[in-house]
Structure formats: C-alpha cells, structure tokens
Amino acid sequence: MSKETDQSHAKAEDNFSSTAELAKNTGFQSTLSIASKDVEEQKKPYNPFENRNLEHPNSTLGSIVHLLKACLGSGILAMPAAFKNSGLLGGSIGTLIAGVVCTHAMKLLVDTSQKVCVDAEKPFLGYADTCGATFKYGPKGLRKYANVFKTLVDFSMAATYIGVMCVYIVFIGSSFKEVLDPYTVGNQLSIQMYCALTLVPLVLISQIRNLKYLVPFSLLANALITVVFAITMYYMFSDLPSITDNDRVKVASPMQWPLFFSTVIFAMEGVGVVMPVENEMKHPQRFLGCPGVLNVSMVIVISLYGIFGFFGYLKYGDAVKGSITLNLPQDAWLAQAAQLLMALVIFFSYALQFYVPMEMINRMLANRKTRDHENVIQITIRTVLVAVSVGIAAAFPNLELVISLVGAIFLSTLGILIPAIIDTAYRWERGLGPCNYVLYKNIVLGFISVFALFSGSYTSISAMLAGEGHDVIEEIASNATLF
Q: Per the UniProt record, which residue ranges are transmembrane (predicted)?
C-alpha cells in the first residue's frame, strides 16, 4: 500500500472521529445522533398525570359523587337561616354569586396545584404542599417564605376543622334540647349542659386513629342524612305559603349580608376535600374544564342550596333557626326522629372532621426522637382537643352565629383568599394575562374574602357578646329592612 493511500485513510478516520466528537459535544448537537434524542427526551416537561400510581383510583362519576357528598352535608340545613339574613330575592342572587366565587376559587387552587406539580416533579400535592410549592417555584422574593406559608396554611386548616367541630357540638346539643324539652318540663337542661354531655361520647369516638375504621360510620351517616333530608322536605313543602302573598323579606338589610355570605361559604365551601378528590382521580385532567367534575358538582350544589334556602325561609320566615331541622314540630314523632337522626349523623361525622387536625399533630409528633408513651400521648391529645372544642361550643351555643363566625374567619380565608394569592404568585413571572386582568380579578376575590372575614366576624362576635344571638339579628332586621 502506498504512502498516499495511508495518508488518505488516516484523514478519513480523523474526519469520522471529529464527527463523532461533535455528536457527543453538548455544545454542538447533531440532529442525527442518538445522544441528541436522549437530551430531547430529558427536556420533556414532567407530566404528573402519567406518574400517578393509584391502587384504587376514582372514576369521573365517582369523583362527582365524592365531591357532592362532601359539599351536601349538614351545611345545607343552615341555608334557610342564611336566607333570613338576605331575603328571598337577595338570597337567590347571593347564593348564585357566592357559588360562582367559591367554584372559581376552588378552580384556581386545583389549576395551580396541577401546574406546580410539573415544576416540583410530584404526581400530586395537597393543599398546604401546593401553597408551599407555589412560593418555592414562584417569584424569587417569595421563595424563602415557602415553608412558613405552608405551615401557616397547615395550621389554618387545622383551626378551620376545630371550628367545624365546635359547630357540630352545638348542633348535637341543640337537637337533643329541642326534642327533650317537651318531656322535661320544669327540669329542662340548658344548651350548655347538653353540649357538655357530648364530651364523653365524642372522646370515645375520637380515639379511632385509622381512617379506614371510620368508613362504616360514614356509610351509616350518609344513609341517615338521606332520611333526614326526606323528612325535612316533607314538612318544609307542607302548607307552603304563597311566594307573593306573605310577609317574607325580599331583600334584607345590608347589615345582615355579612351573616348571609359567611353562612353560605360555610355551607358550600369544599376546600378541604377538593384536592383529595382530584388527587385520587383516574383521569385528573377531567376535574377542570367544561363540563368537568368541579363544574358539574357545583352546579348541582348551588341549585340544591338555593332551593333549600329559598323554600325553607319561605316556610318558616324569621323564625327559622340555625338548622331547619330545629324548626320541625316538637310534638310529631317523625320530626323528632329526624332531629335525633341528624344529631347522630353529626356525631358520626365528628370523627372524620377530627381526623384533619390530628393528621397535622401526628406529623409534628413524628419528629420526636423516641416513641415512648405513644398511646398515652395520643389519648391525652385527643381528649384535650375534644374538651377544648366542647368548651368553646358551650361558651357560644348559638348555632347560627357559630356557623357564620367559622365561615367568616376560616373558610373565607382558605376557600377564597389563599387560592387567589397562590394563583397570582404562580403567574407573577409567567404572565398575568392581557392588561394584567388576572391580577385585578384576584384582587377583587381578595377584597371579597377580606370583607367576609371582617364584616362577618364583627357581626357574629357582636351578637355573641350581646348574649342574645337570635334577638340581636331580629333587631337589626327590624331596624334596617329594605323592603
């Protein structure tokens, strides 16, 4: 072989080597190289939906049922009392507006959670985790507050459900008092005493530590509440006054609107369950959108709440109580059965609500260095927590005002304000839409939340401190009714 031939072969080998080196060089990617395909695959955005490995995922229909079950609870029984603070016309319009606001806020929460899952490379996130991740992957100035914000939301969620537990205790006490008072003439117990008598049964049921053991109680509660709704509607639609020929207020005083809005938020807001339902879906992309799980569920919820509130107030007028079951005839055994069954439903539901604050407390206990005296610690904490909620309920036993206060302080914040904040934070460096409409829209949501927080809290606390509850509200209504 000649020298020239050897040199040409050497040049060919050098050229091939150079091409190979260029293909491997990350600064100069060849579209024909296998390495470049690997890089492109690595650059594909993380898809949280494809990475969810659920052992028992919920179907789309099943998710709608779960969301309806969560939203259509005892809160619907408080809707007639809400209409008392708004009027027939005002309540109908207000329920629609409040429903749209709550639905949109829940949509913001789920939408932000799904998007931030991509950045965090997590298949799903809970409420508090979503808030923390939004700050962590949001504007640089907020990133250092991620853990603080997450912890704040966690504590707020726990406080919310403690407030709900107080409402449940007042409801149980009020129901038993309403039924037993006619049989204990001369020896009637106070509502505070009935609340105190719930302590031992609630302490016992709150010792159930595993959620799966609460399933039979939840199933029984769902069956009983169906019976209660049927009995309540039977009495509610019997001898119903005419819509036009009655003295029912059409639009109540603006002074009463905060109580209306706070009560509706308490009844309708499903912020505590919306993320768990979405996280357990087989096709989570169907949760939002049109029609979507959220929209379908909330249309049904808003419609039923509006109907129940309208006709409940039309039936009983200003005499309607914090739960319409308390207005049922005291001398009818069917009505008494409905009241006792509803008290039993709330009793069984208490354990499920109790699970939420205990979940946060257990996460804190998990950081302990030792597991000594675990049972004693668990029993003590659970007993103290129940005792505190019973004490608060006994101190402020007006059901209508307690519902309004919990809705104003906690659910207006968690259900409306925080979703608006995290949506704004996530979009801050990613675009706020044409003319920054997202920012202005979320500012309006924040204003609504703050208005409900301060006005609802002030009105509720003022009535509680006056010690007259229902009479205070009636005085406000009589002095400032519009028409």
A: 152-173, 185-205, 217-237, 257-275, 287-313, 333-356, 376-396, 402-422, 443-461
**Structural domain count of the chain:** 1
Per-residue pLDDT of 257-309, as tens digits, reads 888 888 888 877 677 778 888 888 888 888 888 888 899 989 998 998 999 99
**160: domain range?**
59-479
- Report the CATH number at residue 411: 1.20.1740.10
The answer to the question of residue 351 being in a domain is: yes
The predicted model scores a pTM of 0.78
Q: Is 31 within a domain?
A: no
Distance CA 337, CA 342 (A): 8
Tell me the per-residue pLDDT of 32-90, one tens digit each, with 9 for 90 and over.
445 554 554 556 778 888 888 877 787 888 888 878 777 776 678 889 999 999 999 99
Do residues 232 and 324 make contact, with C-beta atoms less than 8 angstroms apart? Answer: yes
Q: Has residue 6 been placed in a domain?
A: no
